[in-house]
Amino acid sequence: MIASWIVKRMIRSTFEKFNEDDFDVDAFLAGYSDDAVYDLGSELGVGETRKGKKALADWFKQYKKEFPKRKFVVKNICFSAWPLCLTNVCMVEWSCVAANKEGKEFRWDGISVSHVKNFKIVHGTDYISCAGLPPISSLIKPTAKA
Q1: Order of strands across the sheet that contains 120-128
Q2: CB 18: neighbour CB atoms within 10 A?
Q3: Residue 64 sits in a domain of what CATH number?
Q4: Which phi and psi (to 5°) does residue 64 adopt?
Q5: CB atoms within 10 A of CB 120
Q6: Angle at 137 between CA 131 and CA 138, to 5 degrees
Q7: C-alpha dihedral sign at 16, 41, 115, 55
Q8: Burial bucket for residue 63 (CB in 10 Å: 0-12, 13-18, 19+)
Q9: Burial class (CB in 10 A: 0-12, 13-18, 19+), 129
Q10: Within a domain: residue 122?
């Protein structure tokens, strides 16, 4: 029970740091293994997989540039752990409001799942809801061809 409380507190703290306009990407990734793999979700459900801390750092730096203002709110945290167990799974349900460089606001909900080994994230996946995003039809530009 104490381990779960500590982990939940750490997760909430991490999300608070992530909300800072210019969060420190390297500090954020300190909890990841060097060869971590992360499956990034998208509004269409088709994401990309990033492998290694450098690839993750590059992605987060680009995300910071594209969405300089963001507010994540943690709704629920589920942590599977046996005290002092070296492998665990953590799920975080969250919602986000983010403004892009042009000031356009986006809202979405998601769940992040992290597989932890030896106290470092080795594999993570984001599952993002399409609710609150623009309809797909508005993202497709019409062409002059019939």
Answers
A1: 48-51, 32-40, 120-128, 105-117, 87-99, 69-80
A2: 18
A3: 3.10.450.50
A4: -60, -40
A5: 14
A6: 85
A7: negative
A8: middle
A9: middle
A10: yes
pLDDT of residue 134: 59
Residue with tokens 């945290």: 77
The residue segments making up the domain with residue 66 are 2-132
| pLDDT mean by block of 10 residues, the chain; 146 residues | 76 87 88 92 72 93 90 91 75 92 89 89 88 58 55
Between CA 120 and CA 106 the distance in angstroms is 30
The pLDDT, as a whole number, for residue 82 is: 66
Give CA separation, 72 vs 22, 41, 59, 140, in Å. 14, 16, 18, 28
Tokens, residue 136: 């797909």
Are 85 and 7 in contact by the 8 Å Cβ rule? The answer is no
Report how far residue 63's alpha carbon sits from residue 101's, in angstroms, rounded to the nearest whole number: 11
What type of residue sits at position 82?
A: W
Is position 146 within any domain?
A: no
Give the chain's domain count: 1
